[in-house]
């Protein structure tokens, strides 16, 4: 759902900053020091795959073949429940589906912290 635009390769991102967040140019290091975004500049152009997963379902092949336009596939989530946001197949956040003009988008409501282990 939140993958790259097929035509341009660009992802349309909107910053809906409420004014309470830290400047994007400053981020604390693990040792508490503040670093600038310029230190990360070498990785700014590295492409990543972003997926917003509404839910999952398991179907038998026979059920799959019976699907037609207008068919409803029940997912493992309830209405209003947070969706999972994956970056390069790693769960990084949870969020809510939003409508931005005539496009669907996702607003992140929870950032998933890594456990610190190397994968």
Automatic annotation (TrEMBL):
<dbReference type="InterPro" id="IPR001172">
    <property type="entry name" value="FliN_T3SS_HrcQb"/>
</dbReference>
<keyword id="KW-1003">Cell membrane</keyword>
<keyword id="KW-0472">Membrane</keyword>
<keyword id="KW-0969">Cilium</keyword>
<keyword id="KW-0282">Flagellum</keyword>
<feature type="domain" description="Flagellar motor switch protein FliN-like C-terminal">
    <location>
        <begin position="43"/>
        <end position="112"/>
    </location>
</feature>
<dbReference type="InterPro" id="IPR001543">
    <property type="entry name" value="FliN-like_C"/>
</dbReference>
<dbReference type="InterPro" id="IPR036429">
    <property type="entry name" value="SpoA-like_sf"/>
</dbReference>
<dbReference type="Pfam" id="PF01052">
    <property type="entry name" value="FliMN_C"/>
</dbReference>
<comment type="function">
    <text>FliN is one of three proteins (FliG, FliN, FliM) that form the rotor-mounted switch complex (C ring), located at the base of the basal body. This complex interacts with the CheY and CheZ chemotaxis proteins, in addition to contacting components of the motor that determine the direction of flagellar rotation.</text>
</comment>
<feature type="region of interest" description="Disordered">
    <location>
        <begin position="1"/>
        <end position="38"/>
    </location>
</feature>
<keyword id="KW-0975">Bacterial flagellum</keyword>
<comment type="similarity">
    <text>Belongs to the FliN/MopA/SpaO family.</text>
</comment>
<keyword id="KW-0966">Cell projection</keyword>
<dbReference type="InterPro" id="IPR012826">
    <property type="entry name" value="FliN"/>
</dbReference>
<protein>
    <recommendedName>
        <fullName>Flagellar motor switch protein FliN</fullName>
    </recommendedName>
</protein>
<keyword id="KW-0145">Chemotaxis</keyword>
<dbReference type="InterPro" id="IPR051469">
    <property type="entry name" value="FliN/MopA/SpaO"/>
</dbReference>
<keyword id="KW-0283">Flagellar rotation</keyword>
């Amino acid at each position: 759902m939140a993958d790259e635009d097929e035509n341009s390769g660009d992802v349309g991102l909107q910053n809906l900053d409420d004014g309470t967040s830290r400047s994007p140019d400053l981020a604390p290091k693990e040792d508490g020091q503040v670093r600038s975004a310029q230190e990360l500049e070498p990785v700014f152009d590295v492409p990543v795959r972003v997926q917003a997963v509404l839910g999952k379902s398991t179907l038998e092949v026979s059920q799959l073949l019976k699907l037609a336009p207008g068919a409803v596939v029940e997912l493992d989530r309830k209405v209003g429940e947070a969706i999972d946001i994956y970056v390069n197949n790693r769960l990084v956040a949870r969020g809510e589906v939003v409508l931005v003009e005539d496009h669907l988008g996702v607003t992140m409501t929870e950032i998933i912290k890594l456990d610190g282990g190397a994968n």
